[in-house]
Structures are given as structure tokens and as C-alpha cells.
Specification:
This protein has eleven helices and 14 strands. By secondary structure, the protein is an alpha/beta fold.
Length: 422
């Protein structure tokens, strides 16, 4: 041991104290030795000074070693306590160790070797205990911090939950508001469109060219506004889970051609070609024709809107026996690769400016994606900026049935019966 150790010897016998001192010096231990002869003196010493080890006699004038150990440990004195006893009673040794003694040694066995070994062992045990206690203290502090963190996280979780509830309520109120306002606005808009159509009929009187132009503008803008209102209403229904598909059996090629014919005038106004290719061995499907038409109308109107020259092309083909793919391609402005992942988001438009060149609500593609998903289908897009885009949707030939529909047992049987009869 190279460091100088502070040692306290508690013994009322001068000869015994000298024996301990001599044994430690002969063992080559560097010590700073203090000596007292009573329990009371020992208590005063240890309260003022921290020792590396205390050697104390079992028999003292004002008490015994057992009582002194109890007192020292009760005073939170933790350094090693080695009892030097003139007895060899094992029961006494057990009591001493239970009371908190680090070790004990019979005075008859005191020598340089034994005392140095006992000192080393006592200090090793003490340091191990101190390290363990320090580790436990660190664990307690860490646990306290973790408990506090858990409390804070729980409070944050509750706050987030409350915020989510408020956001959900706000979203529901927004959906109800959109549905209500859209419904309320549709009635006057239908009246505006209807009266405009009446005014344009010859039997209600001839209009001048200027009057006809103004009424046609009212009619066209009314139809455009009604289409926007219908988009908002559909979106609010989808968001609130109130939009349901109404499947039936129909010829998908007929729906596609009729939809293309309906929108052909928009392509003609921009001198765009509009081509349809249908490659189907069996055009009969079981789906919602109204919603499929809505999907096609959105994709085709977008393709025409963003195409200045060239054309729009629709291709329909079978993907295996159970799925059908519809591709809508154009030669328009295309989509930047950084924007492709965002175009199906609600209210997302490539040009977000108020005075943007291409008007719209930004709901069309979001509604398309939602409807395709409701049909258990998939939608994807390939595009390069400046060279056009291709939207591809895949839908099952037969739409999946809800649990309630399957329990009724009518829709599925009806589909297969009609298919067989065809």
C-alpha cells in the first residue's frame, strides 16, 4: 500500500496499542495513527475525522465493542471497523459481524502479516461496498429521473390525446360544415343552371347574340361551380365515411366510351386528339359505374386541362383474369419528380398561387385515390416534366363485398347468376 492510511486504534491498554502500531509499521504500511482509550473518545474522533480503518478493543472502560459498533453504524459511520478481541467465542464473532463489524481478530494472533492482511481485506470490502452504494445511488437517481420523465411523457401523451380528440372533433365539424354548405349551395346553383337552360331555348323567346353569350357564360360558370361543390361534398362524405359504393354489373367499355364522349368537347376546344383503345376479352364487370365514371372524368379533365397540344389517350386492358387496368396518358406539362408523391394529397396543387394558370380545388386526385382504394384497386403515375403523364389504375373485375353484403347472400349470387346467363 503506497498511500498513507489514517488509522484509529481504540484500546485502553497501552501495550495492546503499541502491538498494533508495531505490527503495522513492520508490515511496511504507511500510516497516520491516532489512539484513544474509551468509547466516548472514539465517537468524538470519528465524527471529526474520516479514517481508512478503525481497530477497536472488544472490552473498553465505558462499554464494549459491540455497543460501540452499534453507535458508530447508527451515526452513519461507514468506514471499516475491525474488532480486536481476547476471546475466541464464535457466538461473539457472529454478533459483531451482525452489528456491522467488517472483521475481527484475536489479539493472540496479532502480527505484521495477519494485521496487514486483515487491513487489506477490510479496505477491499469497504471500497467494494462504497462502489456498490455509489452505483445504487446512481441507479436511484437514474430511476428518479426516469420516473419524472415517465410522468412528463404521460402528461404529454394525455395532452396529445386531448389534442387528437379536439382535432378529430374539428375535422368532423369541418366535414359536416363542408357537407352542409355544399348541399345548401347546390340548390340555388341547380336553379341558376336550370333557368339559364330555359333562357337558351327558342320557345322562351329569342335572345340577342350578346344576351345569349352572357347566359351561356352564366350556364357554364354555374356548371363549373356545381362541379366544384360536388367535389367538396364527395370529399366530405369520403372523409366522414358516409360515401358508399353501389355495385352493379355493367359493360365497362360502354362507361368508358360514354365518359370520353361527354368530355370530348373540352378536347375539341383545345384542338387535342382524344383516343380510346379497349383490349378486353370480357368487358363485363361488377362495380359502381357512377364512381368509375367519376374517376375517369377527373383523370380525363386533368389531362385535358394540363395539355396544350398533342392529345389524351385512354387504354383499357386486362391484368390476368380478375383485374382490369385503365391508363390515361397525355402530352401535357408533366409533373416534377419532387411533386409526384404529393399530388394525391388533399388540396394539393402543383401551382399553389391564387392567380395560378390552372384553376381547381385540389380535391380531384385525392377523391380519385380514395375511390380507387374503396374499390380495392391501386393507382400510380409516371411523369416527366415537360413530356406528359400517365395515370394507371387497376381495379378488380368484381368489387369486394362488405361483411353485411356477404351475410345477406344476395349480391354475390346475383353477380355469378347474371354472368353465367351472359
Amino acid at each position: 500500500m503506497e498511500e498513507t492510511l489514517k488509522i484509529l486504534v481504540v484500546d485502553d491498554d497501552e501495550v495492546d496499542r503499541m502491538a498494533v502500531r508495531r505490527a503495522l509499521l513492520n508490515a511496511g504500511v504507511l500510516i497516520e495513527l491516532s489512539e484513544v482509550g474509551t468509547c466516548s473518545e472514539a465517537i468524538i474522533k470519528v465524527k471529526k475525522t474520516s479514517y481508512d480503518c478503525v481497530f477497536l478493543d472488544y472490552r473498553l472502560p465505558d462499554g464494549d465493542g459491540l455497543t460501540l459498533i452499534f453507535q458508530l453504524r447508527a451515526a452513519n459511520i461507514k468506514f471499516p471497523l475491525v474488532v480486536l478481541t481476547g476471546q475466541s467465542d464464535e457466538q461473539v464473532a457472529v454478533e459483531l459481524m451482525k452489528a456491522g463489524a467488517t472483521d475481527y481478530l484475536s489479539k493472540s494472533r496479532v502480527s505484521s502479516e495477519t494485521l496487514a492482511q486483515v487491513l487489506r481485506n477490510a479496505m477491499r470490502v469497504y471500497r467494494a461496498e462504497m462502489q456498490a452504494e455509489q452505483a445504487m445511488q446512481q441507479l436511484r437517481e437514474s430511476n428518479k429521473i426516469l420516473v419524472q420523465k415517465n410522468k412528463e411523457l404521460e402528461e404529454q401523451r394525455q395532452q396529445i390525446q386531448e389534442q387528437n380528440i379536439k382535432l378529430l372533433e374539428a375535422s368532423q365539424l369541418k366535414s359536416k360544415f363542408l357537407a352542409t354548405i355544399s348541399h345548401e349551395l347546390r340548390t340555388p346553383m341547380n336553379a341558376i343552371i336550370g333557368f339559364s337552360q330555359f333562357l337558351l331555348r327558342p320557345k322562351y323567346g329569342q335572345l340577342s347574340n350578346q344576351q345569349r353569350d352572357m347566359v351561356e357564360r352564366i350556364l357554364n360558370n354555374g356548371k363549373h361551380l356545381l362541379a366544384l361543390l360536388n367535389e367538396v361534398l364527395d370529399f366530405s362524405k369520403i372523409e366522414s365515411g358516409q360515401l358508399n359504393l353501389k355495385p352493379q354489373m355493367y359493360d365497362i367499355s360502354t362507361v368508358i366510351h360514354s365518359t370520353v364522349a361527354e368530355i370530348a368537347s373540352l378536347a375539341e376546344m383545345k384542338s387535342l386528339s382524344l383516343e380510346v383503345i379497349v383490349n378486353l376479352d370480357n368487358p363485363i364487370v361488377y362495380n359502381d359505374p357512377l364512381r368509375l365514371r367519376q374517376i375517369l372524368m377527373n383523370l380525363l379533365s386533368n389531362a385535358i386541362k394540363f395539355t396544350k397540344q398533342g392529345g389524351v389517350y385512354i387504354k383499357v386492358e386486362e391484368v390476368g383474369k380478375d383485374r382490369i387496368a385503365i391508363l390515361v396518358s397525355d402530352t401535357g406539362i408533366g409533373i416534377d419528380s419532387n411533386e409526384i408523391d404529393n399530388i394525391f394529397e388533399v388540396f394539393r396543387q402543383i401551382d399553389q398561387a391564387i392567380n395560378r394558370e390552372y384553376p381547381g380545388t385540389g380535391l380531384g386526385l385525392a377523391i380519385v385515390k380514395a375511390l380507387v382504394s374503396m374499390m380495392s384497386g391501386q393507382i400510380s403515375v409516371e411523369s416527366n416534366l415537360g413530356s406528359g403523364s400517365t395515370f394507371r389504375i387497376e381495379i378488380p373485375r368484381q368489387i369486394s363485398f362488405t361483411k353485411e353484403q356477404l351475410e345477406e347472400g344476395t349480391l354475390k349470387d346475383s353477380f355469378f347468376d347474371q354472368k353465367t346467363s351472359l
